[in-house]
Each structure stands twice: as C-alpha cells, then as structure tokens.
Design a protein that fits this description.
Blueprint: H1 10-23, H2 27-46, H3 57-69, H4 74-91, H5 100-112
Length: 123
C-alpha cells in the first residue's frame, strides 16, 4: 500500500470511530438512552450502589422492579433497559441485559400491565 502522507494517530482514529457510531443512531434515540442512564444513576444514588460497568443482572432486576413500583409503563422500562444495553455495547462489556432474570422480569412487567398479549390460543 503506497504511503499517502503521515498516518493518523490512534486518538484521531478513535475520535472518528466514535463519530461514526454516534452518527449511526438517531438523536432522539440517544436522548432517550441518556434519560435511561440518568434514571439508572438516580437509582444507584438512592440505594448507594457503585457506579460501574457492566451493570450486574441483579442490579438490573432491582432497577426494573424500582421503575415498576414507580408506575413506569413497561414499554418505557424496556426502552431504558435498551439504553443500558446500548451503553454496554459501546463500552464493549458483557451484556447482562439478556440474562434470564432480566428478560423474565421485563416479560412479567409487560404481562402485569397488559402490554404483552398471549400469542397462542388457550385450549
């Protein structure tokens, strides 16, 4: 490959990569995910929890339960969890969002609030 001038620094490449990823997501989505992370921070402060990545599945379960007790709609809770998953993916950390207890808690919340309908006919 022919040399086309000075090579860019890794810091420069990292910045460009961040911009590419940022530009792949709509601003409204980023704003919504920012609200989700803010709510997570508020929850952590309320219960004196450590602010670390990744968010442990038990902490996510408690966060989901907390939001449910605040009468947060299941769709909003699911969106918030998606925002946390997005942050996990950006930080390239394990995604506990898909853990069994988190998935089941979200499903249970949707069923409880009537936001999940049965997809089969009872016999």
């Amino acid at each position: 490959m022919p040399d086309k001038g000075p090579r860019p620094s890794l810091e420069y490449l990292t910045g460009i990569a961040r911009d590419l990823i940022f530009n792949s997501t709509f601003n409204k989505t980023i704003n919504t995910y920012s609200v989700a992370l803010k709510k997570l921070c508020e929850f952590r402060e309320l219960y004196n929890l450590h602010k670390r990545w990744s968010v442990l599945d038990q902490e996510l379960l408690n966060f989901i339960t907390y939001l449910a007790t605040q009468k947060m709609p299941a769709t909003t809770v699911t969106t918030y969890i998606s925002g946390i998953a997005y942050a996990h993916n950006l930080k390239q950390v394990n995604e506990t969002i898909k853990s069994f207890i988190v998935v089941k808690a979200l499903e249970g919340l949707r069923r409880k609030t009537g936001e999940l309908r049965q997809t089969y006919e009872p016999q």
